[in-house]
Amino acid sequence: MKLSEIYGILNLEFSGEDIEIQALNSLGRANENELSYCDSPKNAKFIEDSKAGAVLVTEQMANLVKSKAIVVENPHLAFAILSKPFSKPLFYEVAESMIDESATIMPNVHIGSNVKIGKNTVVMAGAYVGDNVVIGDECIIHPNVVIYNDCKIGNECHINANAVIGSDGFGYAHTKMGEHIKIYHNGWVELEDNVEIGACTTIDRGVFEPTIVKTHSKIDNLVQIGHNCELGFGCIIVAQVGLAGSSKLGRNVVMGGQSATVGHLSIGDFAKVAGRGGVTKDIEGKEDYAGYPVMKLKEWFKLQAKMLKVFGIKR
After folding, report:
1. CATH of the domain spanning 98-298, picked from 3.40.1050.10, 2.160.10.10, 2.60.40.10, 3.90.870.40
2. How many whole angstroms separate alpha carbon 105 and alpha carbon 124?
3. Residue numbers of the chain with a pLDDT score lower than 50
4. How do residues 43-65 score in pLDDT, each as one tens digit?
5. Among the options 142, 185, 227, 264, which is catalytic?
6. Is there a catalytic annotation at residue 180?
7. ∠85-227-208 over CA atoms, to 5°?
């Protein structure tokens, strides 16, 4: 839409050159035909190198924008409002799908437009495969799995019953009156080769970019993977784990049952988090952790021993 239309949606007065905005994108990925936003001083460092045609900013950061600065009180809220008119369609134009002749598609499966399904893949009854989905060779898609539009599934992946791949992320901006304005997510999910997803597990699509699960990672039942997360090679994620948005796990990270992360943090390669551990900040690799907030496992054992002694509890 025209930049002037965007100003109208945000109840702002427009002046200057009226350019065409084709999409919303992150500061790092946006081009001259796209709009981005910056909602905090810690992200201001990305404005200088951004190629975005326009950027939603507060008045204090307007001087940092090289292109068109759209000055608003709350850039995050303005972005959420604009995410709806720029959201991807629920259905695309009908295009022929390419299903290998060796693939097995059981009854009551929905296959969307422009879908690609590889050799010897089995899609079981009741599954939903959305538009532009790619599924590789030798995969098994179990009953009632949902794979939303634009997601990519590698070779030899197993997705167990009722899992949901590519659902909209849980993201909202908030008004002064306490209303929660939905952020529409235009990213997707990528599962690399030899990934297994447990029953009733959900993996949310990213806002602009993919949520990624890398090769040989195994995810148990009832796990929640938030938007824009990245799981490295060979991760093991046990039942009822919850990863908040933009959590980055290195290779061969193990997370025990009911452990969790807050968003926007990193876990190093070969780290292990014990069951019910709560990761609240970046943690190093090649270490074992436990507790909430997590600490190194040896320290946690010492703390538990001291507490038992202080309170006179015998075990």
Report:
1. 2.160.10.10
2. 6
3. none
4. 888 898 899 999 999 999 999 99
5. 227
6. no
7. 45
